[in-house]
Amino acid sequence: MPFITVRTGIKIYYERVGEGPRLILIMGTGLDHSCWAPQIEAYQKRFECIYFDNRGTGKTEAPKGPLTTRLMAEDTLALMDELSVENAHVSGLSLGSCIAQELTLMRPEFVKTLQLHGTWGRAHGYAARKFKAQIRLLEELDLESFYQINVLWFMTPEYMNLYPDRVNAQIDAIVKAVPSREILKEQYRADLNHDALDRLHQIQVPTLVTVGSFDLALPPMYGREVAEAIPRAEFVIFEGGGHLHNLEQPEEFNRATLDFLQRQQQSPYKH
Known about the structure:
Shape: globular
Number of strands: 8
């Protein structure tokens, strides 16, 4: 099993597959590395993919204490240092996108290109209310019951109608990947407290921001806000897509992200 202990004091589970330029993939709240599976299949033909379980998710441990997106960015950089990765393309989804923001702001020379999927720069308005509601639900419900409700925010009605068995299997897998309600609540508090919006103008690397048009977890206004804050960022909306548009629309997602990466590799601009 590929585990490694890093300087932030935790043992991280990670995987690396493929050959080529390095691509770091950072997953979202309560979701383990397996949620990148449709991307790994496509990416590994062109990139060395490094993906892992965040602090408190899947097989990665989490000591008691508050979580922040900055701390989780420090975990990611510590893992990359242990693996002797000096720079890489970076892609994050949901909470993973906020971790990627902080990582890029902390160590801009590490990041060749940046992808932010289902992202936000500050949890205000609707997003703040939603995160607070999720924390409250976790205080009242067991994990299985919580995710039966939570799925309404991150999967679309069409997907649930077409693939009910798949949705149930995904809920079961997600529940198994979350060690405890307390750790999951800390991840949602990290979501709620993330606030990088006023610093995003400092990001100078080529950036792609994507969102599903039917994302009820973080509606398109939040991704647009991030894209407008980052100089020259590209903004793509996946029509009919939900929060996990990488899982619901994998072919379209892979095509758009690989196109972005290929264009940046061919660019004469040195990242």
